[in-house]
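Researcher: I'm comparing several assemblies side by side, and this is the next one on my list. It has 748 residues spread over two chains. Same procedure as the others: predict the full complex and return the structure.
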Amino acid sequence: MAGLVARFAPADLFAQAPGAAQRFGKEKLLVRSLRPPDFETPVALLDSFITPIEHFYVRSHLPAPASLDAASWALKIGGEVDAPVSLSIDEIRKLPAVTITMTLECAGNGRSFFDPAVAGIQWEKGAVGTARFTGARMADVLKRAGAKATGKNVEMHAADRPLGTMPAFVRQVPMAKAMHPDTLVAYDMNGQPISAVHGFPLRAIVPGWEGAYSVKWLTALNVLDKDSDSFWVATGYRYPTRRVAPGAAVDAKDMAPLVGLAVKSLITRPAAGASLPAGQVTVAGFAWAGENDISKVDVSIDSGATWQPARLVGEQAKFAWRRFEHAFAATKPESYLILSRATDAKGNVQPAVAQWNPSGYLWNQYDSVRIEVK
Amino acid sequence: MAGLVARFAPADLFAQAPGAAQRFGKEKLLVRSLRPPDFETPVALLDSFITPIEHFYVRSHLPAPASLDAASWALKIGGEVDAPVSLSIDEIRKLPAVTITMTLECAGNGRSFFDPAVAGIQWEKGAVGTARFTGARMADVLKRAGAKATGKNVEMHAADRPLGTMPAFVRQVPMAKAMHPDTLVAYDMNGQPISAVHGFPLRAIVPGWEGAYSVKWLTALNVLDKDSDSFWVATGYRYPTRRVAPGAAVDAKDMAPLVGLAVKSLITRPAAGASLPAGQVTVAGFAWAGENDISKVDVSIDSGATWQPARLVGEQAKFAWRRFEHAFAATKPESYLILSRATDAKGNVQPAVAQWNPSGYLWNQYDSVRIEVK
């Protein structure tokens, strides 16, 4: 890794030109924000089990670090530990390597569909993707410093720098999840070093939880015997502990940190608005439920009046989405509203209407595409 | 019946004052149009199996007749018959009397929920109600004139008068439906003479079909060996023969007359927006499917993720809605989006999304109410 350096030019960090996504190698993505870069994947580009890097969505809370030098990078482990330590990338690469296939989804994916509207990046359906992340176990890294039994949370710090009064992007993960053998300090994504915009040279990988736990440009793990008081733990990424009416104000005492992901499906084929000849139509897509397995996906070709079980096919990995397919005969010219509805192994079912919440998180109602058969 | 006279003052026919609904004895209804009178029933007033007259919705295509005199009323039967005849109200009342309990629903009920929006009276959920209609069988009336075997349709004429270039409200019913023993020429509604605004002194009752077949102020039955060329048969009340995309233009050749009604349910209790104490909540309402029986109603208390079968209770009548009830324990303060979904005896199921069509007919997606448990 020594010598591998990624740099952002200042013009990219603050780009407002339409070419910004191109400069990140993301020219097929939808620009939801230019500074910081927030790019969404068009659903048609999500039709493969592994999402190619160039199609993988980008979520940044702050401008990315201006300079990323793997050779001089240090990951500091401190706080409630026996002996603070600073590890180089080479040292981390020498720890046992683990590869996790993980569906990463922004908590705000689908936010634009909530009514009443909610502030934030107005994601539609494509702030999600699946990649293989390789790295050391976060547990192995923490053990290098000797995390104490008093440790309750691991605070994660990063190299992106807030501007003005913006809070630093500091998050925490509970100790049990940090020590889980599938939680990583990752350096590779889809078999190559994680690219600059995805967190080079180190990224936390907290599988099955919403994407913002997987902190990019990771610089420090700080073991705490309490809750972090950082903005993004104390205030951000919290969800009501009870279902509230759309538009309702929610007391801080009735909010808790987001953990896991909602059960959800996404139809990746045919494309919404597709015009197809009469004949067999194959509906396909992916379903995921964070830490839970998908047990079934139902598809409706009649606007949700009746449902048929889809076939679950292809690779099955613990924290990755599952491919579903359902073929039907479209024998005459007609408009079809096709719906999908996933169920996970714990019996959670994707609802007809997503639960509104003040931050617009975890939108997960039935997916739908309308197609025309000619 | 002799001597029973109902009159509208011209001021009522063209009323634009907020008191117009009061003058029709409909002060609790929502005014959707003042001229002609189109009044909708608030859902909370639909919580009884039989809808009281004062709560029954009103749909008029044209200003109501200015004068209605039962004593001089004549129902003419002509066209493809052995001998045209004119019957008085007294003669019709002397024929065998039949009482039908019927759910009457405007084809455009729910039109306001279609997206894109559709022109017409912007009904929400309350252009529906159930009444007991008493009258002579239309078959017995037609037999008085000797309807011929060449008869294909029965054209129904009425006393309401179009203004300017408006087409007369003439409709037709196929001969088989006209001769069905449950199709009536009715004079009583809920045990009393049909009131002026509901079609005094005679109204066709075509059970299980959309309300506009049940022509008010009936003056003539004209047996035809072809299709009527009246506007409301040739152009109005037609529905696409195939599912079309929302907003699509539909060729006249791809349209057919509406028959029957869509399978549908309506939650009448608790009211949308109700705030209830924690404890047992009873969800109740009605489901109907025109000529078909209701076989089940499912209720969801979790936004459509899971469904439980409701109990079908109360009176069951062939063309009437069926009461459903489902109780659940709401143990903590929470917002509930409650959904209902009906299935009829032919296996038709209420869809998650209603089928858009150019006239906005037969809106029937899952019903929903949101309540707050405190």
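Model: For your comparison table: The longest strand of chain A covers residues 334-344.
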